[in-house]
Amino acid sequence: MRSQFRPCIDLHNGQVKQIVGGTLHDTDVKQLQTNFVSTQPAEHYARMYKESGLLGGHVIMLGPHNDTSAMSALSTYPDALQVGGGINLSNAQQWIDRGASKVIVTSWLFPDGKFSMDRLDQMEKLVGRAKLVVDLSCRRTKTGNWIVAMNKWQTLTDMQVSKPVLEALAKKCSEFLVHAADVEGLCNGIDEDLVVALAEWSPIPVTYAGGASSIRDLQLVTKLSKGRVDLTIGSALDIFGGTQIKYTDCVEWNRTGCLPTEL
After folding, report:
1. CB 73 within 8 A of CB 59
2. Does this model's pTM top 0.85?
């Protein structure tokens, strides 16, 4: 069993971008640090993932003005990409109907920063457990714990990532998506402790994102998680302007489990 590469399409103001996770703010635009802004539309990447046969990727809408771009990606590769960002009870089924394989929910589950099991129950009843991904993207505290963050990772919630929490939530959804917000977009290495914890604590599939800087991180995550956690790679990829990881190598890893021979 080995970890898989999961592709992504991050949208900001309708454009495909790679952003340093901790710098995205609703009010202070000056704090935003962008690693990459694509000249290609979202459907370009969806088509690429389709041609490579990649499944389980996610389209994340970071703020407003992204619906059109997200819909174009989903229509290009229907029933293969998950969609998240602003998902709530009023639009979740609409996104499934538009071609999303699953919807990813975060902030809506935390009114005023406090987790609502009632809301999760409502969402599960609406779209079904098989179509639901809970985003537990988090920040690490000084004491070493991970706290779920919402509103583009600006606001800490009342939920600590733990085995009891993951076991309870897993009864209502089919996957977890976890961005390590403190290292997201920095390409300085993954949060290894978090990967180990997710593998040990989660009874359902988990995709980890944040800090990948080498094709060997796929091998590392496989080792740390015994293949139970998949890895999303963003800013380090050549298709997003990165210099550290070739997209074709990630596709080859998924297909064969082999790293490039020159490494």
Report:
1. yes
2. yes
